[in-house]
Amino acid sequence: MPAAVHPRRAGARRSGIAMIGKAAPKDSSPKPGDKGALDRHPLVKACRREPVSYTPVWLMRQAGRYMPEYRELRARAGFLEMCSRPELAAEITTGAVRRLGVDGAIVFADILLPLLPLGVGLAYDAQGGPVIERPVRSAADFDRLGPVVVEEALGFVAEAIRLSRRALGAATPVIGFAGAPFTLASYLIEGRGSQGFRLTKTLAYSQEELWQRLMAMLAETTADYLNMQAAAGASVLQLFDSWAGALSPEDYRRLAMPYTAAVIRRLRFGVPVIHFATGAAGLLELMREAGGDVIGLDWRVDLAEAWQRLGSGVAVQGNLDPVVLLADLPEIRRQAALILRKAAGRWGHVFNLGHGVLPETPVDHVRALVDAVHEMSAR
Ligand code: 1CP
How many CB atoms lie within 10 A of CB 320? Predict the structure, then answer.
C-alpha cells in the first residue's frame, strides 16, 4: 500500500482500546476540530462524489460483539450503560477504528436510544436484542408517551462524538446515525425485532391517523437527534431504514417515504447523509427520491445495476455480503475485488458490507478486508 495513502498506518495497527486521552498518532494531519481537513477526508469526499486517492471503507456494526475488546467491556457493563458513559462509548468507537484501519468512526450507540425518553421500557435482553416492555399499539398508548427533548435525554451521544472527534483528530471522520421512522416504528409497535412486521403494517393499514401522528413524532425526534450529532462534530450521518424492504413500493411511498424525506429535509449542517435499507431492491428509486447523498445497498443487488438505476447524481455505499467475512482470505479478497470492479473507479463509492458485521466474524478477516480494499483501490 502506498505510504502516501495512509499516513496513519502505524497508529492504526495498535490495538485500539484505552487510547482516549492519549495523543492522536503523530502525522501531518491538521489539528482536531479543523473542519476543512475533515472535509478533505476520502470518506467525506466520496460521499460528495469528489475524486479520492482510494476507496474509503468502514463497516456497519464495526464496533460490536465480534470484538474481544468489546466483549471484555460488555462483561462488566450493560449495553445501555456502555452507551450512556461517553468516555466508554468513545473508547469503543475509536478502538475499533485503530484496530481495523477503517475510514469512518461510527459512534457507539443504537438506533433505539431515542425511544428511551418515551418511557416505553426499552431494555436489551441477554442476547443483546432490544425489547420494549410497553409497545405502542393504540391511540391511548401513543398519548401516554413522554416528551422527547433530545439534547437533554441523549446528550451523552453528543459527548461521545465530541470525545471521539478529539481523539481521532483529522485522521478519521466520525459517523453519526439514527434509525429512520419506519424502522423505529417497527420496534415501537412489535416490541422487539420482527420477521413479518404484521403488527406494524396492520396498524399502518387500519389506524391511519395514529400512524401519521406516530411517524411525524418519530421524524421530528430523528431529525433533532441527527442535528445534535452533526453539531457535536459528526462529519457524516447515516440513516438506517433497515426494515423498509418489508414494504411494497406503494406502501413505502405512502407510509414511510414522506417521513424519511422530512427527516432529511430538516437536517441543518450540510453534513452528507447515507440513506441505507436492506432487502430494498424494489425501492431504490423511491429511496433516492426520499433523499440522501449516498444510497446504502445490501448484497442482494448488483452494485453496477443499482447505481445505473439511481443515476450518477448520487453516491453509493456497499455492498459485500457479511457472510463473506466468514470465508478464507483469498475469497474475501476476490469478492471485494468484484465489488470494486462494479464501481469501476467512478467517484462516489464508499465500500461497506451490505448489512452489519456478524457476531462470529474473525477480527483478522475484517482487518484483511479493509487492507485489501485500500490496496486494490489505490489510484
Ligand atoms: O459499530 C457499531 O456497532 C456501532 C453501533 C451500532 C449501530 C450502528 C449498534 C450497537 N447498533 C447499531 C444500529 C442498529 N441497531 C440497527 C441498524 C443496523 C442493522 O440493521 O443492523 C438496528 C436495527 C438496531 C437495533 C438493535 N440493537 C439490534 C438488532 C435487533 C434485530 O431486530 O435484529 C440489536 C442486536 C441491538 C443491540 C446492539 N446495538 C449495538 C450493539 C453492539 C448491540 C448488542 C448489544 C450487546 O452487546 O449486548
Answer: 24
Instruction: Report pLDDT for 5.
Output: 40
CATH number assigned to the domain covering 39-377: 3.20.20.210
65 within 8 A of 128, measured Cβ to Cβ: yes
**Which residues make Cβ contacts (< 8 Å) with residue 191, sequence separation at least 6?**
131, 132, 133, 135
| 209-252 pLDDT tens trace | 999 999 999 999 999 999 999 999 999 999 999 999 999 999 99
**Burial grade of 328 (CB within 10 A; 0-12, 13-18, 19 or more):** exposed
Ligand 1 close to Cβ of residue 112 (< 6 A): yes
Verify whether ligand 1 is closer than 6 Å to residue 78 (CB atom). Answer: no
What residue owns the CA closest to ligand 1's atom 41?
A: 64
> Distance between CA atoms of 144 and 18, rounded to whole angstroms?
42
Helix axes 208-231, 257-265, angle to 10 degrees: 30
What's the CA-to-centroid distance between 193 and ligand 1, angstroms?
A: 11
First-last CA distance in the chain: 11
All 3 cell numbers of residue 22?
492519549
**In whole angstroms, how far apart are CA 235 and each of 29, 113, 199, 344?**
16, 20, 36, 26
Closest CA to 113 of 208, 228, 282: 228
The residue extents of the domains of the chain are: 39-377
